[in-house]
């Protein structure tokens, strides 16, 4: 079944900036999930998410990858300019067998100190999947999850056993979310980075 899923994705490659290829399999055992991860460990073309027996494989579009990189570049400017200790983990596979969940965020970071699981995970969403990503991140104990969808951010903070929507990041308190959004949207990436950096240098001068 898993081999067929991958073959399907490979036979139907996305030929536009927008379309992402997506495949779902259910039921999948934890052992099958880990076997698939081993099979794909040298292939960065896919994102794999698993929750309670449901497995989803996504082949991100070119536009998706461009947006995630822009967000990462801007956040790294924030870390540098605010002297915030950070550990970039990118799209590392995080999983917990005990809670039967695992995923590969678009970008992820530990803040302050390096940990087994990230404090912040970022998801760029162009097409909706069947797996509840917040449920997966809850199983991993990720403090904040940000979604970029419809050209804007939605932020969630883990409070007890549930995620609560927040208007401002508690992990990155000096972050102007409105400015970050404008810079991600800007058609000129170089100009956007310079504008973002200028804001912090004026703010903290």
From TrEMBL:
Record CDD domains: DUF820-like
Sections of the chain in a coiled coil: none
Swiss-Prot/TrEMBL keywords: Endonuclease, Hydrolase, Nuclease
Residue ranges of every copy of the Putative restriction endonuclease domain listed in the record: 33-176
Signal peptide feature range: none
GO molecular function: endonuclease activity
Protein name per UniProt: Uma2 family endonuclease
Organism: Lusitaniella coriacea LEGE 07157
């Amino acid at each position: 079944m898993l081999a067929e899923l991958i073959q399907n994705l490979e036979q139907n490659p996305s030929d536009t900036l927008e379309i992402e290829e997506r495949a779902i399999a259910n039921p999948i055992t934890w052992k099958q999930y880990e076997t698939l991860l081993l099979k794909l460990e040298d292939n960065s073309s896919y994102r794999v998410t698993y929750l309670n027996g449901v497995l989803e494989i996504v082949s991100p579009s070119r536009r998706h990858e461009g947006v995630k990189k822009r967000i990462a570049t801007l956040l790294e400017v924030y870390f540098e300019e605010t002297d915030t200790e950070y550990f970039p983990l990118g799209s590392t596979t995080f999983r917990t067998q005990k809670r039967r969940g695992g995923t590969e965020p678009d970008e992820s970071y530990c803040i302050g100190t390096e940990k087994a699981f990230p404090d912040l995970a970022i998801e760029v969403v162009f097409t909706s999947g069947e797996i509840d990503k917040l449920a997966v991140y809850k199983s991993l104990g990720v403090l904040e999850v940000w979604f970029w969808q419809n050209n804007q951010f939605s932020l969630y903070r883990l409070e007890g056993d549930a995620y609560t929507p927040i208007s401002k990041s508690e992990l990155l308190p000096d972050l102007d979310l409105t400015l970050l959004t404008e810079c991600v949207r800007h058609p000129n990436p170089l100009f956007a980075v310079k504008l973002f950096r200028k804001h912090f240098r004026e703010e903290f001068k």
